[in-house]
UniProtKB/TrEMBL annotation:
<keyword id="KW-0320">Glycogen biosynthesis</keyword>
<comment type="pathway">
    <text>Glycan biosynthesis; glycogen biosynthesis.</text>
</comment>
<dbReference type="InterPro" id="IPR013534">
    <property type="entry name" value="Starch_synth_cat_dom"/>
</dbReference>
<keyword id="KW-0808">Transferase</keyword>
<dbReference type="InterPro" id="IPR001296">
    <property type="entry name" value="Glyco_trans_1"/>
</dbReference>
<dbReference type="Pfam" id="PF00534">
    <property type="entry name" value="Glycos_transf_1"/>
</dbReference>
<dbReference type="GO" id="GO:0005978">
    <property type="term" value="P:glycogen biosynthetic process"/>
</dbReference>
<feature type="domain" description="Glycosyl transferase family 1">
    <location>
        <begin position="296"/>
        <end position="452"/>
    </location>
</feature>
<comment type="function">
    <text>Synthesizes alpha-1,4-glucan chains using ADP-glucose.</text>
</comment>
<dbReference type="InterPro" id="IPR011835">
    <property type="entry name" value="GS/SS"/>
</dbReference>
<protein>
    <recommendedName>
        <fullName>Glycogen synthase</fullName>
        <ecNumber>2.4.1.21</ecNumber>
    </recommendedName>
</protein>
<dbReference type="Pfam" id="PF08323">
    <property type="entry name" value="Glyco_transf_5"/>
</dbReference>
<keyword id="KW-0328">Glycosyltransferase</keyword>
<dbReference type="GO" id="GO:0005829">
    <property type="term" value="C:cytosol"/>
</dbReference>
<comment type="similarity">
    <text>Belongs to the glycosyltransferase 1 family. Bacterial/plant glycogen synthase subfamily.</text>
</comment>
<feature type="domain" description="Starch synthase catalytic">
    <location>
        <begin position="2"/>
        <end position="239"/>
    </location>
</feature>
<dbReference type="GO" id="GO:0004373">
    <property type="term" value="F:alpha-1,4-glucan glucosyltransferase (UDP-glucose donor) activity"/>
</dbReference>
Length: 482
C-alpha cells in the first residue's frame, strides 16, 4: 500500500509543535506494516541542503503561487529514514522566520497561496503518480494540507481515498472568499454545506467536508470536538460525520526518546536503575541556576507559552509550588506576557525557579530526564506529546483532564495505586487553586519514596510508541480501499 502524507512540518527538519513529531515518526511505524508512506513538505530553507541529494520527479507551471518542482529525497540517515517529496518553490517558501509567519510574528499574507499550492501539487501527484509509485491513500494533516482532498473531489475522482487528520481544530486557515479564484476552487461549492464558514473560506472545514474519512489524535478529543466547548464552530460539521470520524492516539518515537540510550543525558537509566536519573537532575539544575542540593520535587514545563496551555494559571500557582518545597524548570517560548511572567518568577525565586525562553530539542531531553514531574495544565489538548515523553522518562505527568491527556495519564487515586498502574496526577479545573491542590497531591506522593518509584516504573512501562496506533491507521486505510 502506498500513502502520500501531506503536511507543513516534519521533525527533525522543521518543527513548531507536535504535528512535526507525528509526521516524522508515523511513516516509519507504517513501514513495519508494509506501507510505503512518503511525506510531501514545503521546501523551507532548513531543507535546502537536501535538494542536491534528491532527484526532480515532477514540475508544476501553474500552481496558485506560481511554478514549482517536486524533489524526491530517498530514505537515508540524512532524512531520518523518511522518503521526502519537497515542493521547491522559492517564491513561496524561501523566507526568514517560521513556517507560518515572519520575523515580526505576523502570519504571511499569502499563506493561502503557499499552502494552497502545497495541496494542489499533492493532488496532481495523486492524478499522475510518480515513476513506479502512485498513492492509494492521500493523508492530509491539519489545515495547511486540507485542500488536497477538495482538489481531488473537484475532478470527480474516487481514488485515491483521502484521510484528513485534525491535530488542533483551533487552527483553521480562514480567508476571505476573494481568494477562491486564484486557488482554483469551485465557487458553487461555497455554501454552508461546503467550503463556506461564516462568510469565509475555511481550509480545515473544506478538508473535513470532502475527505473520505476524518481522524484526530486521541479518542477523547474526537468526542470533545463534537461539542461547542471544543469544536471551535466546526462541531456541527463533525456531528454530521460521526460515522467517519475516528480518534487514534498519537505515539512517540521510542528510539529518539529513550532514557537508556539518550546522548542528551549525562547518565542512562531505565526501570531497574532509577537512581541514575539523579545525574540528569543535577545537570539540569546546574544549567538553570537551581539549587543543586534541594530535597523537594523538581517540576518542569516544556511548552509553547500560551493561555491554551493553561500557563497563566500555572504562573499564579508558582508561589504555592515554591512555598511547599518544590522547584520549577521552564523551557518554552510564546506569548510575550507569559514569557515575562516566567522570567519574573525566576527572578523572584532564585535557585527555585529557572526559565529558558526559547526551544532546544536536546535540552528538552535533559529537562525530561532531570525533572521529577512535568506540568501540563492545558485548557484543551488534542493529544499532547510531552506527557508521553514524561511517561517514557519516568517524569510523572501532572495534567488537566482533557483530550489526549485524559487518555494517557492514569490518576494516582486509591484504586490505581493499589493496582500499581497509577502513572501521574489528573485534575479538572484549570485554575491556580486546582493546580495548587494537584501539586499538594504530588508533594504527598513524593514524600513516600516507595510509592513514587512504583509510579515511575508504571509510567516507564506504559506503551507510548507507534506500534498499536500505526496498526489502527493501516486498518483504516484498508477499510477505505475495500
Amino acid at each position: 500500500m502506498n500513502v502520500l502524507m501531506v503536511a507543513s512540518e516534519c521533525a527533525p527538519f522543521v518543527k513548531t509543535g507536535g504535528l512535526a513529531d507525528v509526521v516524522g515518526a508515523l511513516p516509519g511505524a507504517l513501514a513495519r506494516h508494509g506501507v510505503d508512506a512518503r511525506v510531501m513538505l514545503p521546501c523551507y530553507p532548513s531543507l535546502f541542503p537536501l535538494l542536491p541529494k534528491g532527484v526532480e520527479v515532477a514540475s508544476f507551471g501553474d500552481l496558485p503561487g506560481g511554478s514549482g518542482r517536486l524533489v524526491m529525497v530517498e530514505a537515508s540517515s540524512e532524512t531520518a529514514g523518511l522518503t521526502l517529496l519537497l515542493l521547491d518553490a522559492p517564491q513561496l517558501f524561501d523566507r526568514a522566520g517560521k513556517p507560518y509567519n515572519g520575523p515580526d510574528g505576523q502570519d504571511w499574507p499569502d499563506n493561502h497561496r503557499r499552502f494552497g499550492s502545497l495541496a494542489q501539487a499533492a493532488a496532481r501527484i495523486c492524478f499522475d503518480g510518480l515513476e513506479g509509485w502512485k498513492p492509494d491513500v492521500l493523508h492530509a494533516h491539519d489545515w495547511q494540507a486540507a485542500l488536497a482532498p477538495v482538489y481531488l473531489k473537484q475532478t470527480g475522482r474516487t481514488v485515491p481515498k483521502t484521510v484528513m487528520t485534525i491535530h488542533n481544530i483551533a487552527f483553521q486557515g480562514r480567508y476571505g472568499p476573494q481568494v477562491m479564484p486564484e486557488l482554483g476552487l469551485r465557487h458553487d461549492w461555497f455554501h454552508a454545506d461546503g467550503l463556506e464558514f461564516y462568510g469565509d473560506l475555511s481550509f480545515l472545514k473544506a478538508g473535513l467536508v470532502y475527505a473520505d474519512h476524518v481522524t484526530t489524535v486521541s479518542p477523547n478529543y474526537a468526542r470533545e470536538i463534537l461539542t461547542p466547548r471544543f469544536g471551535m464552530g466546526l462541531e456541527g460539521v463533525l456531528q454530521a460525520r460521526t460515522e467517519t470520524l475516528t480518534g487514534i492516539l498519537n505515539g512517540i518515537d521510542t528510539t529518539a526518546w529513550d532514557p537508556s540510550n539518550d546522548p542528551a543525558l549525562p547518565a542512562p537509566y531505565d526501570v531497574k536503575t532509577l537512581k541514575a536519573k539523579s545525574a540528569s537532575r543535577l545537570a539540569l539544575a546546574g544549567k538553570l541556576g537551581l539549587d543543586t542540593d534541594h530535597a523537594g520535587p523538581l517540576f518542569c514545563v516544556i511548552s509553547r507559552l500560551t493561555e491554551q496551555k493553561g500557563l497563566d494559571a500555572l504562573a499564579a500557582a508558582i508561589p504555592h509550588l515554591v512555598d511547599q518545597g518544590g522547584q520549577l524548570a521552564v523551557l518554552g517560548t510564546g506569548e510575550p506576557a507569559l514569557e515575562a511572567l516566567f522570567q519574573q518568577a525566576a527572578q523572584d525565586h532564585p535557585g527555585r525557579v529557572g526559565t529558558f525562553i526559547g526551544y532546544d530539542e536536546g535540552f528538552s531531553h535533559l529537562v525530561q530526564g532531570g525533572a521529577d514531574a512535568i506540568l501540563i495544565p492545558s485548557r484543551f489538548e488534542p493529544c499532547g506529546l510531552t506527557q508521553l515523553y514524561g511517561l517514557r522518562y519516568g517524569t510523572l505527568p501532572v495534567v488537566a483532564r482533557t483530550g489526549g491527556l485524559a487518555d494517557t495519564v492514569i490518576d494516582a487515586n486509591a484504586a490505581a495505586l493499589a493496582a500499581k498502574c497509577a502513572n501521574g496526577f489528573v485534575f479538572d479545573e484549570v485554575t491556580p487553586e486546582a493546580i495548587s491542590a494537584a501539586l499538594d497531591r504530588v508533594f504527598a506522593a513524593y514524600a513516600d519514596p516507595k510509592q513514587w518509584q512504583a509510579m515511575m516504573r508504571a509510567a516507564m512501562r506504559q506503551p507510548v510508541g507507534w506500534e498499536e496506533q500505526a496498526g489502527a491507521y493501516v486498518s483504516l486505510y484498508e477499510s477505505l480501499l475495500q
